[in-house]
Amino acid sequence: MSAPGRGARAAEVGDRVARVALGRLGEPGDPRIARLVAELGAPAVHAALLEQRDVCGVETDVAARLRGLDPETDLARAAAAGIRFLCPGDHEWPAALSDLDHAGALNQRGGAPLGLWVRGPRRLDELCGSGTGAVAVVGSRSATTYGTGVAGSMAADLAGEGVAVISGAAFGIDQAAHRGALSARGPTIAVLACGVDRAYPSAHRELLAYVADTGLVVSELAPGCAPTKLRFLARNRLIAALGRGTVVVEAAFRSGALNTANWASLLNRVVMGVPGPVTSAPSEGVHELIRTRDASLVTRGSDVLELVAPTGTVVPVTHRGSERPHDRLTERQQQVLDAVPVAQAAPASSVARTAGLAVAGVVTILRGLREAGFVEVGEDGWRLASPPAGGSAVAGPVLTAERQAGP
Amino acid sequence: MSAPGRGARAAEVGDRVARVALGRLGEPGDPRIARLVAELGAPAVHAALLEQRDVCGVETDVAARLRGLDPETDLARAAAAGIRFLCPGDHEWPAALSDLDHAGALNQRGGAPLGLWVRGPRRLDELCGSGTGAVAVVGSRSATTYGTGVAGSMAADLAGEGVAVISGAAFGIDQAAHRGALSARGPTIAVLACGVDRAYPSAHRELLAYVADTGLVVSELAPGCAPTKLRFLARNRLIAALGRGTVVVEAAFRSGALNTANWASLLNRVVMGVPGPVTSAPSEGVHELIRTRDASLVTRGSDVLELVAPTGTVVPVTHRGSERPHDRLTERQQQVLDAVPVAQAAPASSVARTAGLAVAGVVTILRGLREAGFVEVGEDGWRLASPPAGGSAVAGPVLTAERQAGP
Hints:
Two copies of one chain form a homodimer. By secondary structure, chain A is an alpha/beta fold. Chain A is 45% helix and 12% strand.
């Protein structure tokens, strides 16, 4: 970029170059910059800032800093490292991000990103746009093995269905979500609060390299930039915006994952939470989200798909549990069985009265039920059969308990 | 009861006696009997059934059975055993039960009970009516230690606030709910599917005796009656009807506790569920209830109170977690702290630029933050302080993780 002489009117640079420069100037997610760019266009904002003068006619600090930048070299260096810079208008720019223009701000962060630095072989617009789109799976860094286990298998389920799993590459739930998607050979997107060439946390260098080899690593920060707390807050809005919905797996009351959930809510995305023991602190924030913020409870990938898929493309699954032996009885058999006492035996006449049926027919049915192992008969009459010795191992303790003590 | 001669017109007996007799005749929760009694009154139904003749003029089986009963002796024997029989119109009759008249049927059971056999020193109308009323806490017999622990402490919380805890005296969650209420010296009501003089399951003989000493044991079945599957289904509607709401703590997909929840829903009571690990079968039915039936997720007694208490009597509790050191910072201090890199140190000028503040002021603030232990300074500049060696034990791992890795 050629530096015009002092006092000369700043030449307008191209949109892409202006966006890189403005991105270098401020912090990501500054809603003032986003608003100006949306109204005037990046080149005009860039030019206006370059010309800023204080009362003595000296260029302002902002103008001086802007003049010191070299966005064209930034772009060339990034390209050499396999990193591309996406702008609105590019084919690969995800339409979903424009929702940020009108969503307002959280923690003084907001607005669409000026652009996105991207590494990886997949197309961001395709992963976020087609079919069921992408889903964010986020949660605590200080997760439990329960939480990471659920996040991993949920991510594997989703990625196995072709849904891209978005997360933040942090320890705990994020890591488990990316790994789950990778384990299913499915697409995954890591959205970072630092440059896409950096590994933060450094322990995830290999994980991020694997994500960049098969999915996408994305950031609105230029290569080389370090993470700050503010940048994590800004980053969270991108995770929420790129997904059809956000699933929070474990999050204590003050977890950053809840900030992502708040963004998802602000963006009218589906907000989902995976419950856990009420005695587990890392689940408290999720329960609060479901309890007071109308987040949907989800327990597995199919629950998530049902909520995020376009209407009519997924058949809702009602979990019913496995079939029980009772389910194969005729209505009449069921009626008689229901009338047999659970503990103290009763004569057939008493069973018949309870069932509201004739005694003769009931005796025939009781004999059939005895052959099938449902009831037993003794001197005192008929009663429900005791579960077989090994029965609980086969049928499960629930069935056994139901049989013993009624519904 | 004097037996009128054959062919003589049956004399109408009193309402209470007619209800005891009709209760002995059929199964509890027979919606046809309930409807007839609601329309014609128990004495008229009793008299009509006594007169039933088949085509040959011989009295029907029903009329013969009715004639063989001795409800007055039933009442006298019960009274001698400390058991009273409540009818609609009695002061102690809970108004809430009339909701069953219009709620329809489930599993061919429905309608208000003909009467209730009651043991115990408390008044049923008072426990179910005043203030926040009563709450049902139900769940699996095959519960986990997690489930019984949560049920027990939730019941203790509720009973400690004077809310009567209703349950079914079964193994598992029911038992834990009664015990929790008793441990808080609070009121509890056991609603049985057999006579209130019986112990079912027999292992709960002592528990039921304790409940009868301090709270109430209730059944629509006459003393001596044995439990059947049908009677459990009928009983569940009473548990749901007597409570302002029903909390399901653990329930597999086919658990009878879900039948109680369905009744609560049919009766426009608050339906609540306690979540658990999604990997735990006894929590699956509860998750399904929250996911597809709009049951409210609750995690502790105060959540339940908030939902069942009359509007305005309980202040909703938003769980926020404990205060963090950050919460005591000024807005300006927070702004500077947010701009300090988490990993790689940066000079004060860089922090100032990120924070959007003048360098001189930022240096002063950074020094204050260093004294307070939030940041540290080295040759390369400023960065967030490492958590103190013993810090995680004091502040908890979540706080530590948040500090290390941003929100």
